[in-house]
Amino acid sequence: MKKLVFAIAMALCATTAMAQKQAEIVFEADTINLGQFSEKDGVQTCEYTFTNKGDAPLVIHQAIATCGCTVPEFQNTPVKPGEKGKITVTYNGRGKLLGSFTKTISVRSNAKNGIKRLYLKGNMTE
């Protein structure tokens, strides 16, 4: 009898754990290509749009870039299931090396897919 009660309790715990609601962040595009631009137009801004495809509110905790020339900004308010949000990224290439570049932005949230990486590409000319 004890074994049966234990088995039922374990099954209930497993079912409860599986039934917990989670957020899921899905971006429309993981990579944005700014194309070619001149150094005098070195400050470029773009937006990464995402949808919370989960069944719990999505909270972005952190968005950090690989270098100081790339600055991500995000909303601090939770994004409800089914709603959209955005992360705005500004790249400042003034005074940086000319040529092609790829920057990585790491987004940490409470989503089941945890950390998501976004990429920003471009080619800065004279």
Walkthrough of the structure:
With 126 residues, the chain is mainly β. A 4-stranded antiparallel sheet has the order 1-3-6-5, with no helix packed on it. The chain has a 4-stranded mixed sheet with strand order 2-8-7-4, with no helix packed on it. Helix content is 14%, strand content 50%. It is built from 1 helix and 8 strands; from the N terminus they run H-E-E-E-E-E-E-E-E. The mean pLDDT is 88.
The strands making up the biggest β-sheet line up spatially as 1-3-6-5
Quote the average pLDDT: 88
| Cα distance spanning the termini | 80 Å
Radius of gyration, taken over Cα atoms and rounded to an integer in Å: 21 Å
**Inertia-based shape:** elongated
Largest sheet: 4 strands, antiparallel
Given as residue ranges, the uncertain stretches (5+ residues, pLDDT < 50) are none
Helices and strands, in order, run as HEEEEEEEE
The fraction of residues in strands falls at over 45%
Oligomer: single chain
Structural class: mainly beta
Strand element count: 8
Query: Which range best describes the helical content: under 10%, 10-25%, 25-40%, 40-55%, 55-70% or over 70%?
Result: 10-25%
Q: What is the number of helices? A: 1
